[in-house]
Amino acid sequence: MADPMAQDKGRQPRRRLTDAALAALVAFLLGIPFIGLTTVEVGGRLAVQTRWSWLLAAAGLVFLGRLAVRWLFERQQAARGRTNRPRAMNRLGTSNGSKLAGAFVIGVAVVLPFAFHDNRYVVDTATTVLIYVMLGWGLNVVVGLAGLLDLGYVAFYAVGAYTYALLATQFGLSFWWCLPIAGLFAAAFGVLLGYPTLRLRGDYLAIVTLGFGEIIRLVLLNWTDLTHGPDGIASIPRPTLFGLSFAPPGDVATVAGALGIDFAPWHRMVFLYLVILGLALLTNLLVLRLRRLPIGRAWEAMREDEIACRALGINVTNVKLSAFALGATLGGIAGVFFAARQGFISPESFTFTESAIILAIVVLGGSGSQFGVVLAACVLVLLPELGRNFSEYRMLLFGAAMVAIMVWRPGGLLSMRRATVNSVREERAVALREAGVPS
Amino acid sequence: MSPSTPALLEVSHLTMRFGGVTAIDDLSMSVQAREITSIIGPNGAGKTTLFNCLTGFYRPTSGTITMQHPQHGALRLECLPSHELAREAQILRTFQNIRLFPKMTVLENLVVAQHNTLQHASMFSLAGLLGLARYRNAEEGAVQTALALLRRFDLMAQADSPAGGLAYGVQRRVEIARAMAARPRIVCLDEPAAGLNPSESAALNDLLLSLISEEGVAVLLVEHDMAVVMKVSQRVVVLNYGRKIAEGTPLEVQNDPHVIAAYLGEPDEPDEADQKEKSTGVSEEAAA
Questions:
Q1: What is the pTM of this model?
Q2: What ipTM score was computed for the predicted complex, to two decimals?
C-alpha cells in the first residue's frame, strides 16, 4: 500500500516539470503569430519583424506559472485531505449571522444613492451591479438550484429588453405594464428553450443553450423590419412614478413639479437605482421562498439525481420547465429595466460575453447561494471598473482574479448550502405535544 | 399461486429485448400483497432489467404487467412512464447503486419523496408563497411522516446531515426510508443488503419483515445475499438468462436441480461439490 504511494511521490517532480514544459511548448507555438511576429512601418510600408526574445520570455513565464499553479493545487488538495472536517456548525448562529449581514447590506444599498447622489459614476455603477445581481439570482434558479447549465441566459434578457422597447415605442405602453408582460413573454421563450432540451444534461444542454442565445441575437440583428437590426431601438421612454416623469419642467407632468421641488438630474438616477433595488429584492424574496417549497426542493433534487426523482413520482418535465420559465421571467424583467435605463438598445448589448459574465457570477458566488451572487456581482462589475487605470491590461487582471477565486475557493465564494427543513424545530413541537397529553 | 383472488401484481409473458439481446424472455410471475417476493439469479440474469420494466424505466418489448390497485382498479403498468407509475400505482424502488440526493439532508430526502402531496397542497406554489395554513399544515404533516420513518429506521441522529456524507450501510437504509415516505403499495429493493456487514443485514431482515407486517406493503427483492433471501421471502423466483427457471418457497427453490445447475454449473461428479457450496442459508433453513 505504502510502496506505490512513495513511488508516486518520487515521480511527482518530474511529472510537474514535463507538464509545465508542455504548457510552455503550447504557449510558444501559439505565441509565434501573436508575439513572435510583429508588423512595423518601414518607410510607409508594413514589414514583418520577429521578436524571438519576447516569445521565449513569454514561454518561460508560462512554464513558471504552470509550475506555480500545479504546486498551489497540490498543496490545497493535500490540505483538504488532511483536514477531513465534519464541519459541525451552529445552524441557528449562522442563520442569525446571515440575517444580520443581509439587513446590513440592504441598509447600505438603500442609503448609498442618497449619500452619493451628486456622484453620477457611483450611482450608475451601483445600478449596473444590481442589474447583474438580479440576473445572477435569475440564473441561479436554473444553474444553481435546478443544475441546468445555461450558456444562453442573455437571450431572455434580450427578449425582455426588446419587448419593452417595442411595446413602449410602438404602442406607448408604460414601463410598469411592460414588466409583467415582458416577464411572461420571456417565460414563454424559456419554455420554448426547455422543451427541446428536456432530455439533455450537462455539456449537451450547454451547447444547445449557447446556440439558443446566438439565435436570439442573430434574429434581433437581422429582422430589421421589427428591430432595426444593428441600428437598435432609440429613445425608449424612461420609467415613470405613477405617471409622473423625471424630466426637466415642460409640458408633461413631472415628479419635481408634483412635489414642488426644483428639478435635478440626479432624481431620475436615484429613482432608477431604487427601482432595480426593489426588483432585485423581490426576486430574492421569491427565490428564497420558492426554494423552501416543494417546487424548490424538486429543483434541487433534480440537480442531485434526475432518475431518483422519476422513481419518486416527480414529473421531471414540469420541474425542468418551471425552472427554465422562472429563470427566463427574471431575466426578462431585468431586460425591461435595462432597456428603460439605457434608453437605447441594440443587439450589441446581448452578446455571449454577457451570458458568460452572468454565469461567472453564479459560479463564482457559489452555485445556489443568494448572498454569494451579490458578492460575485460586485467583484465582477467593480473589478473591471477599478482596473481602468491598467487600461487594456484590466481584462488580464479580471481573468487572473477569476482564476484565483476558483483556485482558493473551488466551490465559489459562499458555497454552503442551508437545509430547507430541520428536524430540530419539529422535534420540539412533538415533545411539547407529547408533554401536553396527560398519560 | 391461489387462483381465487387476483394477485396484487401480475406479470405475464414479459419480454424485453435490447437489439439482439433478450434480457427477459417470456417471464410470468405474480406478487402477493403483504409478502416478500425475492428475485434471484446469477449476474446478468435480468433481475435489474425486470425492476426497470416494473417501475417504468424500460418499456417492455411485449407482455403485460397488471396491478390490482384498490383505488384505480386494474392498472396496466407497462405503458406508464416511471413518474406516473410511482405516483399512481405507488410502486417505489431503490437502486443497486444508491441514488440519494447527496447534498440534501436525510430529512429533505424524505420530504422530497412526498413531493406530489405537498405540491398539490401548495397549489402550484401559490399557497406556499403566501404561507397559507393549508400548505403549512401539509408541510408539517410531511415532516412528521418523515421523522416517524427516521425514528423507525434508526436514522434520527443523521436527520440533518447531508445524505451523501453518510456511511454506505446508512445510505442504504435512508434510501429504503425515502421509498417508504412516498407511501408505496409495492417497494422494489435492488440489492439492499449489498455491502452490509452480517449484523447490518440481520437488522435489514427484521426491517423488511416489519414493513410487510406493519405497513402492509408488498416487497420485491433482488438480492444476492442468500441469508437475507432465504430468511425473509415467502416466495422466490429464480431467473437465468432472462428466463424463469424456478419459483416457489425458499425451501423448494433451494432443492431445485435447475437452480443448483444455474448457480454452480452442471456437475461432472454429482453431489459432492453441491453440498459444500450451498449457501449458509440452506443449512440454517433446514435446521430450523
A1: 0.79
A2: 0.86
